[in-house]
Fold:
Amino acid sequence: MSLPATRTLVLIPCAIALNIVLGSTVQQVLKLPIYLDSLGTIVTGVLGGPIAGLVTGALTDLIWAYVLPSPLAAPTAGPFAITGAVIGVLAGLWGWLGVFRSRRSLDPPVLAAAAGAALAVVLVVLYTFTHAYTNPASVTLSEGVFLVVALVYAGLVAWALFIRRDAGAVLALAAGLVTGIVAALVSSPIAAYVFGGVTGFGGDAIIAAFRFTGDTLYQATLKQGLLSDPLDKMIEFLLAFTILAALPRRMVARFPNGDRVLEPIA
Amino acid sequence: MAAVAGAALAVAWGGWVAGAVVTVSALAALRAGRLRRVAVTALALTPVVLSSLAVNALLPAGGGGLAGALAALLRLLGATLPPTVLFATTELDDLLIELEARGLGRRSALVVGSALAAVPRTQARAVEVIEAQRARGLDTEGSWRRRLRGVLPLVAPVVIGSLAEVEERSLALETRAFGAPGRRTLLRRLPDSRAQKALRWVLAGLLVAGLLGRAVAVLVAPR
Structure:
């Protein structure tokens, strides 16, 4: 494996700082139910490759939990370094596959292909959700939120296709949804085993509610994760896509995987 | 080494092993005069502790009840305290220099050190962006729809600012032969005694044995 480029090595710490600052300060200002703590990981994965993304994701949580001095530190974040690493690897994969490339053509075939990919993802998501929420009591509890996730997804896809006319945004959204599901699958066992389902974030009440309807600890954390992670990752992926599309070409091109993000000229 | 072994063993075994790890960490912190900082971190976990106890006390017995909650908490403390003690007692610079001397490479040392230094800078930039956007009419107190519209205007400038910083710094590093091959001579080394070396080997052995034992116990347990 060749040595990582200097640029990637400089990107990683800046991305770690981005994760921490966006995830704490900006998130507190906006007070929305999204974490916003993976944007640095996503951008690093897309621009620097899966390994860079992995390092960023893992180190963010480790530094946030153990090394940062007190006002900013979040000691409960440490064990979730695994999730961060997974998100970074996936982002690198999507970036390498060209998912984050801006595709501003209006050709019907391109738009149709994008819509098709989006639909495929929705089917996968439906499959996962119906298999996770088998307990009838908790299904009614979560149907509302699941509907919100689906509506937000549909709304964002429509915006991407019709207002921005950028098929790439749809792919980024779909990738975000899938990544969110994977992230939920990875982090719920951690939340259950290391924390007993109580991490100090807002989701604890939801986990408790699920357990009250009779779920085991692992089921409850999984369900809560599936409610919050896909929404959050979808939004973050779209944000990353929008920002990358707005950057000057020269800045993007200098990164190792930058050529996978830039659209061909002409 | 001690931090990793302690944290991993605490999570794997739980129960009294975790309790022992917590005690050792506390003692180490006391000896180094850093008990206050470690206690602050432990206190930061208090909301978690309280809600965990509340949740588990109120739920039907299926979730393992109070005993299960306490066990999980002990694991959590055992996993959190050793790394905290490590970083509270070791100057980060010394740690990085020592790792680099043992062959980790100056690049990795740069990454961790820069990340820490970058956080206050990025924080200041984020605050500037927030205030600037608020002055231009961005709504952060209104309905969730308006706040959602505020995400991109707040996030994008911070990210782009960071990327611009990456650009500048990598240029600066490249002109200073950062990427050049060859080892560097180090100015400062930490003292290391034979007792410390021996202790490290013992801890490594304990870690391997502990994890293997736990794995065996789990696999052999009657269904």
Summary: Residues 111 and 167 of chain A are 6 Å apart (CA to CA).
